[in-house]
Write a structure and sequence with these properties.
With 370 residues, this protein is α+β, with helices and mostly antiparallel strands. The chain has helices spanning 49-57, 99-109, 114-127, 143-155, 173-190, 201-207, 225-230, 235-240; strands spanning 11-20, 23-33, 38-42, 64-69, 72-73, 84-88, 161-165, 193-198, 210-215, 218-223, 245-254, 258-263, 268-272, 282-287, 293-295, 306-317, 321-328, 333-339, 352-357, 363-366. It has 2 domains: 11-235, 3-Layer(aba) Sandwich (Rossmann fold); 248-366, Beta Barrel (OB fold (Dihydrolipoamide Acetyltransferase, E2P)).
Length: 370
Amino acid sequence: MNAAPSNRHDVRLENVTKKFGSWTAVDDISLTIRGGEFFSLLGPSGCGKSTTLSMIGGFESPSAGAIYLDGEDVSRQPPYKRDVNTVFQSYALFPHLDIFENVAFGLRRKGLGKAEIEARVQEMLTLVDLTGFAKRKPGQLSGGQAQRVALARALVNKPKLLLLDEPLGALDLKLRKQMQIELKRIQNEIGITFLFVTHDQEEAMAMSDRLAVMSKGKIEQVGTPAEVYDHPTTEFVASFLGASNLIPGTVVERGAETASVKLEDGALIKLPTKALQTGDAAVKIGVRPEKFHVLTSDESEAPGWNMIEAVAGVSVYLGVSHQYMMESRTGRELSVYAQNSGRAGDIPHGETVRLAWNPAHTFAVAANQT
């Protein structure tokens, strides 16, 4: 069960901009992160997410705007005056100190007593599942273990906010997935706010209570992983957060609950009116690859579902599914994931099929976005 968010706003950014000379790294962003959330900043390299993290941590100062922690404006405060700790990708452990002393380092600087230091370090080592590693040196640890030590060292001071700047980037795929689960477990247990920066969509989706997708210094969309994946509001979000099929069309009806769009191939499809993010007639209709149901000539369509024709192309076997590259009647490339749930065999190259999907699984973005 997720830790209950506090009533205070642990982090609030108001119209924050950061310029380096003539280059704008972060462009007038506003954002609120609730207490106790696991929140991620997600985006490609150079989108401004790490710069935003650095400003929250106090390593950079905003060129304009304000940053609040627990309601206090900390925009010009140095890092040591903020109740914030940071875990970097490099871990930055002290190689000459054993694991106990690495974790205890901040507590000793605060002048805490020996008994309290012992108790808090052991508590943190238990939390990160490193009981028994206290006397080892960093050079004797695996990458995943070193990452856990860095996390314990950051948490032992009991900060209100933990910043994590791509901390899993140096790990191999299997270990990265294990640490995703561990990070979420630890955050649930201690209940403090985690602000996680990553370019990995799957990582952000797996761990976040909410996330913000960034592009070119701006926030494109904020929401839960399900909201942002199923209902992207811009073409960038639709394309960056997983595979997406975008088909141009024209809105021909906007009802109270349901809208109709005529696609470029002449097909008329339905979608929820609330899914239309623009008042323009020209839109791009979006369908995720796994939402399609492939119907061959001997299969009947589901009543009330949308449907278009396509020609099967190259396929890739993925175990639980086949990934097909198909072409619409206008030659537009479509990505389709067909579950291996008893189908007689692979769909032959060149066979004409129908792609059906639930209207509720349709989203739309403005046609003029790039």
